[in-house]
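Thread: Newbie trying to understand structure tokens

Hi all, I'm a second-year student working on a class project, and my supervisor (Dr. K.) asked me to get a predicted structure for one chain before our next meeting. I've only ever worked with sequences, so writing a 3D structure as a token string is new to me. If someone could post the tokens and maybe explain what I'm looking at, I'd be very grateful. Here's the chain:
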Amino acid sequence: MIREASYSDIDQIAGLVAEFFSCGNLEGTGLSIDNDSVLDFITDVLDSKTACLFVCEKNGIIIGVSAGLVRPWELNKNIVILEEFWWFVPDKYRKENQIAAFLLLKKLFGWGKSMGATVKTISSNKRAESESVMAVYQKMGMTMTDSKFIGRM
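---
Reply by user tm_fold:
Sure, no problem. This is what the structure looks like when written as tokens:
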């Protein structure tokens, strides 16, 4: 079941954040997580009028999440974009629930459209994502435009 996240989900979502970070191939980038910051971030999204967080739940366990923000595009304020800033379904659930990631993104995109977005963006961790994930993005009408580089200052 895909639904909007609630405050009672915060601990399970925080656990998925830690799991996401551990498999994200971010070593050496200067990025690290702090549990208090993670909890604040999740609460901020839940409190926001322009951001949303969805969960996929099975038998009372959250097996995946998607989150995004609706905002005017910085180069044309007349264009509203949905900027996905996080989605994750752990491998242990992905195999048995292959559709979960697709449904989470579809729900996020539907929310973005209802909020006035006409364009959607997804950041991709090319070091961690498989060809099958990239194929899902393309099936959802998305085109790879660039890559993001991360490094220490």
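A couple of things are worth pointing out once you decode it. Strands lie at 2-4, 51-58, 61-73, 76-88, 119-122. Residues 2-139 form a domain with the Aminopeptidase fold (CATH 3.40.630.30). Feel free to ask follow-ups in this thread.
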